[in-house]
């Protein structure tokens, strides 16, 4: 039984990593790496600040990785990837809009009247 399982797992991973690996799969892996890099950026910024922070780079990597993953979903014709990425990208952009609005409000409050 273990020999059969080992053989089947080997065939599965060969199929996923070799037989079906194409340019779009490589693009999808790259998209996930870009998307995942946002957590490294957030972690480094938090360590420097010695508190939990979300830097602007986090949002830009979120948008870039989300767009790339959505393109991958369109290429693969996979609605399970397309729909959540479209919603997420909207949320990331909205967060940037709220950050910009807050910065404008603070700048206006600091202006002498």
From TrEMBL:
Pfam families: LAB_N
Domain Lipid A biosynthesis N-terminal residues, every copy: 27-98
Keyword tags: Membrane, Transmembrane, Transmembrane helix
UniProt GO molecular function: lipid-A-disaccharide synthase activity
GO cellular component, one term: membrane
InterPro entries linked: Lipid_A_biosynth_N, UCP028440_lipidA_biosyn
Highest taxon of source: Bacteria
Matches recorded under Gene3D superfamilies: 1.20.1280.290
SMART domains in the cross-refs: LAB_N
Transmembrane segments: 23-41, 53-73, 79-97
Transmembrane keyword on record: yes
Single GO BP term: lipid A biosynthetic process
Name assigned to this protein: Lipid-A-disaccharide synthase-like uncharacterized protein
Source species taxonomy: Bacteria, Pseudomonadati, Pseudomonadota, Alphaproteobacteria, Hyphomicrobiales
